[in-house]
Prior knowledge:
Blueprint: E1 36-37, E2 61-65, H1 68-81, E3 87-95, E4 98-106, E5 109-111, E6 116-118, H2 121-131, E7 134-141, H3 151-163, E8 168-172, E9 180-185, H4 190-195, E10 212-214, E11 220-223, E12 229-232
Bound molecules: zinc ion (2 copies).
Amino acid sequence: MPNAVPARPAKVPISPPRVSSQSSGRKSATPPRFSVEAERRDSPEPIPSEVASPPKSGLCTVYLPGETLHKFMRIAAVNTERKVETCGLLLGRKTRNTYTVQSLLIPRQTSDENSCTMTNEELVFEFQENRGLLTLGWIHTHPTQSCFMSSLDLHTHSAFQAMLPEAFAIVCAPKSNPSFGIFRLTDPPGLQVIMSCNDQRTFHPHPDKPIYTDADSGHVRMMPELPLEIADLRNEF
Ligand SMILES: [Zn+2]
Ligand SMILES: [Zn+2]
């Protein structure tokens, strides 16, 4: 290996999340250029009070519309058939002690069998700024592989979780059983291990520690009645 240290990892699928809609001087005067599948209903927050208390982990609860997986897999179907990945961002808002996913945003992207790289990120920033939406999680397919977090996924996710401890990653692996998982890095040690890992290879091993864990038995809760808005930036222009 040469001594020069390139920016890592070589393939970064998705940028670190933007956790504030006010944190940038980026101009937002241009009209939105995304298409939105209008499926929002009248009540934005149908959350039963009995499940609204914070979980023991110290993390705020994140409510995820129950139809998220089904809708994403439908959007990803063409790519999945071609055996290439698809990625999306799960955006939402914070209300009191809870986060609620409201939008599934499909960024422009390039992908292959084992990775997915977001492009034209300015369109994502614009979408989020116009609506004041936070990045709460991300979702991607493993068309041919099992349901797990690859080392590339772990590095991608560490940036999200470093910005927002509640951030979660959904992996959809339709050829596998289980066919999906909702994950987060353990903290400690997973987040620290990944953030301090300097391995430059796109895929590489990590120490034999509990690096990541299920989030859906923790702070992420599926809520069947929650609406989900879909925006697909790939359809523009
Ligand atoms: Zn992956
Ligand atoms: Zn690493």
